[in-house]
UniProtKB/TrEMBL annotation:
The keyword Hydrolase applies. Its EC number is 3.6.1.-. InterPro entries: Nudix_hydrolase, NUDIX_hydrolase-like_dom_sf, NUDIX_hydrolase_CS, NUDIX_hydrolase_dom, RppH. Keywords: Hydrolase. Residues 15-157 form the Nudix hydrolase domain. It comes from Novispirillum itersonii (Aquaspirillum itersonii). GO terms for biological process: nucleoside phosphate metabolic process; ribose phosphate metabolic process. The keyword Hydrolase applies. Accelerates the degradation of transcripts by removing pyrophosphate from the 5'-end of triphosphorylated RNA, leading to a more labile monophosphorylated state that can stimulate subsequent ribonuclease cleavage. NCBIfam families: PRK00714.1-3, PRK00714.1-5. Belongs to the Nudix hydrolase family. RppH subfamily. Pfam families: NUDIX (PF00293). This is RNA pyrophosphohydrolase.
Length: 165
C-alpha cells in the first residue's frame, strides 16, 4: 500500500517568526558567535531567539542571552530601526518550528558585554551550542550558514560603523 503524497507547503501562506537577535561585542570589539549543536554543519551564529507573545523585542533579547549563554551582562548600544527578514531553505520548512513559519523577522540589538568570559556558559537548561568564540566583525558572515549569510552581512554593515566610532 502506498503512502498518500503530502502536498507541498505554500510558503506565502506561512508567517514569519518574530525574533530578537544580539550582536554581542567585547571590549576589543570582537563579536560573540557560537556553534549550533542541532546540525551536522559547522554552523555558527550570534544569539537569537523567538519573541514570546506580549514580550517586547528588547526584553526578548536580554532573555535570549541568558537562556543561550548563561548571562545577560550587557549594555545596549543600538538596535535596528526596522525588521530584517530571511526565508528558510525549502528542505527546512516543515522541520523547523513545527512547520508553522517560513522564516524569521528579526529585530537586532548591538550590546557591549560587561561580564567576564567565565560568566558565559553553554550548559544551560536547553543547550543550543557546543562551542563559542570572539571573532573579528569581518569574519562573522563567512561563519554563518548560507541561508542566513545575507542578513548577517546587513547586521555587520549596520552596526560595524558604531564599533569603529
Amino acid at each position: 500500500m502506498s503512502r498518500p503524497s503530502v502536498p507541498p507547503v505554500d510558503l506565502s501562506s506561512l508567517p514569519y517568526r518574530p525574533c530578537a537577535g544580539i550582536m554581542l561585542v567585547n571590549a576589543d570589539n570582537k563579536v560573540f558567535v557560537a556553534r549550533r549543536i542541532d546540525t551536522d554543519q559547522d554552523a555558527w551564529q550570534m544569539p537569537q531567539g523567538g519573541i514570546d507573545s506580549g514580550e517586547n523585542p528588547r526584553d526578548a533579547a536580554r532573555r535570549e542571552l541568558l537562556e543561550e549563554i548563561g548571562t545577560n551582562a550587557a549594555d545596549l548600544l543600538a538596535e535596528t530601526d526596522d525588521w530584517l527578514y530571511y526565508d528558510l531553505p525549502a528542505d527546512l520548512v516543515g522541520k523547523v518550528w513545527k512547520g508553522r513559519y517560513r522564516g524569521q523577522m528579526q529585530k537586532w540589538f548591538l550590546m557591549r558585554f560587561t561580564g567576564q568570559d567565565s560568566d558565559i556558559t553553554l550548559e544551560t537548561e536547553h543547550p543550543e551550542f557546543n562551542a563559542w568564540q570572539w571573532v573579528p566583525l569581518a569574519d562573522v558572515p563567512r561563519l554563518i550558514v548560507p541561508f542566513k549569510r545575507d542578513i548577517y552581512q546587513q547586521i555587520c554593515d549596520r552596526f560595524g560603523p558604531l564599533l569603529s566610532a
